[in-house]
Design goal:
alpha+beta, about 55% helix, 4-stranded antiparallel sheet, Alpha-Beta Plaits, disordered N terminus, coiled coil, Transposase_22, about 300 residues
């Protein structure tokens, strides 16, 4: 029989202390120390209650010799107490528990870390994509703004193509004579701010270079541009275009190529691009980014 002190456990500072074995440490880490203490306390209480019941039954029966059941119970309790005090047994149990738990714990930790990293990467990728789209929108807006400012600076300009070229020409006289004879518009030297041929002079005479004309006043420029239809059938063949920015000129050229089977006519007015489809739908592109919304 174990003593009452051994059955109730050692006392230190009013708190019950249990053998510090690898088993108790593992239980404290895996399932929390309070749970192990509760299990130990329940076992001691039940054991004490069982012994008290057996002693009461023995007194009531008047028997002085311990019965078989009592001896068996004491033996079992003694063996259990001995096992809890046997460090070799606890070490073996601990090793079995650790061996059985280590792989699931590793997998659980790995899966948790993997999922956490995956979710973090998804968030970072989405956040980066959102910021990139925001930067693209800002860049597109800046591009529209800069292109619009450049186009406005060309507001008083027109480009005349097809006028014969010679080495001793006075470009202003050529322009005024062409406007008077072909467009029926009288232009004075003071109406033209600046004019010249575009590009370097060719070594071999070929197709004449275009002439860019910057008018002193917009209303005269607009008058000349509206009269450009009178150049149809002229000899030599001539035509007038607005002075577009390089990006607007490329955009207009790409639209004419990509939608040549769907566009009946295309032209520009004050830098805006107009498209007339085969089903008489009109589209206006005020800025470069409007092309992204175009549905022809």
């Amino acid at each position: 029989m174990v003593s009452q002190t051994e059955r109730t456990g050692r006392q230190t500072g009013g708190r019950r202390q249990y053998p510090k074995t690898p088993f108790t440490v593992l239980v404290a880490v895996r399932w929390d120390l309070s749970s192990f203490e509760a299990a130990w306390l329940i076992y001691r209480v039940k054991r004490s209650a069982l012994l008290s019941t057996m002693q009461r039954d023995k007194r009531q029966s008047g028997s002085k010799q311990p019965g078989v059941s009592e001896n068996l119970t004491d033996t079992v309790c003694n063996h259990i107490d001995a096992l809890f005090q046997d460090c070799d047994f606890i070490t073996k149990i601990t090793k079995l528990l650790v061996d059985s738990l280590i792989d699931p714990i590793k997998r659980a930790i790995t899966d948790s870390i993997t999922e956490s990293v995956r979710n973090s990467l998804k968030f970072e990728i989405q956040d980066t994509a959102d910021k990139l789209n925001e930067l693209k929108d800002k860049f597109s807006n800046m591009e529209d703004t800069l292109d619009g400012q450049e186009q406005y600076s060309r507001r008083n300009c027109l480009v005349l193509f097809g006028v014969p070229e010679n080495d001793q020409e006075n470009v202003i006289d050529v322009v005024m004579r062409t406007f008077k004879n072909n467009l029926k518009v009288v232009v004075q030297p003071g109406d033209i701010d600046r004019t010249h041929r575009l590009g370097p002079k060719a070594i071999k005479r070929g197709k004449p270079r275009g002439i860019i004309i910057k008018f002193a006043h917009y209303h005269l420029r607009d008058k000349v541009y509206r009269a450009k239809k009178l150049l149809k059938g002229a000899t030599p063949k001539m035509h007038i275009l607005e002075s577009l920015t390089s990006k607007r000129a490329k955009l207009l050229d790409d639209l004419r190529k990509n939608y040549k089977d769907k566009i009946a006519a295309s032209w520009t007015q004050d830098g805006r691009i107009y498209l007339l489809t085969n089903n008489n739908q009109r589209h206006v592109l005020n800025k470069l980014s409007d092309a992204k919304k175009l549905r022809v």
